[in-house]
UniProtKB/TrEMBL annotation:
Residues 119-164 form the RNA polymerase sigma factor 70 region 4 type domain. This is RNA polymerase sigma-70 factor, ECF subfamily. The keyword Transcription applies. NCBIfam families: sigma70-ECF. Gene3D superfamilies: 1.10.1740.10, Winged helix-like DNA-binding domain superfamily/Winged helix DNA-binding domain (1.10.10.10). The lineage of its organism: Bacteria, Pseudomonadati, Bacteroidota, Chitinophagia, Chitinophagales. It holds the Pfam family Sigma70_r4_2. Belongs to the sigma-70 factor family. ECF subfamily.
Length: 179
């Protein structure tokens, strides 16, 4: 795939939105997120020979998992370079329009509210929450990736969950009161 721009373009166009949604959970600014996605695709194309699929009937699912792993790792590398300083910036509305068409409008709205709240978490909580809850990493993998202890990973996750629970309860109460 390394020297096959036609195939690269097809893969890039098909999975760009998917990759961007993954990176958005880690990187605030749209412009920076697109840079990270592009860096991730460069890594993907350079290392495509390492991709293996032992179950051809699940090729797309396995490929998406591999893309997800590359994008998460690329986003984390960027956060490390930036010393995990949260970036400031909004998410353009059209990004939410790329949400999975299988979702109901209510699910898309909840997803948007959840991601906005996750992005307001302190960086160390946000990264652990994303990696554990959304991307399915174990505490051991998180600790290894971020250079922290397993205990710190678990603590950051507990604090992130408590913070999000409080925020989401507040949003729910506001919505009930305004009805």
């Amino acid at each position: 795939m390394r020297n096959q721009p036609g195939y690269q373009k097809v893969l890039y166009e098909k999975y760009y939105g998917y990759a961007l949604k993954i990176v958005f959970r880690y990187v605030y600014r749209y412009e920076k997120a697109t840079d990270v996605v592009n860096d991730g695709f460069v890594k993907l194309f350079n290392h495509f020979s390492r991709f293996t699929c032992r179950e051809p009937e699940h090729l797309e699912k396995i490929l998406m998992g591999w893309i997800k792993k590359i994008m998460v790792n690329t986003a984390i590398d960027e956060l490390r370079r930036q010393n995990m300083i949260p970036e400031i910036g909004g998410i353009p509305e059209y990004v939410w329009e790329e949400a999975d068409n299988q979702q109901t409008p209510e699910q898309r709205l909840f997803y948007k509210e959840l991601i906005i709240e996750v992005k307001q978490l302190p960086p160390s909580y946000r990264v652990v929450f994303n990696m554990y809850v959304i991307d399915g990493f174990s505490h051991q993998e998180i600790a290894s990736q971020l250079g922290i202890t397993v205990g710190t990973s678990k603590s950051n996750l507990a604090k992130a969950r408590a913070h999000l629970q409080k925020k989401l309860n507040s949003i729910r109460e506001r919505n009930i009161c305004s009805s």
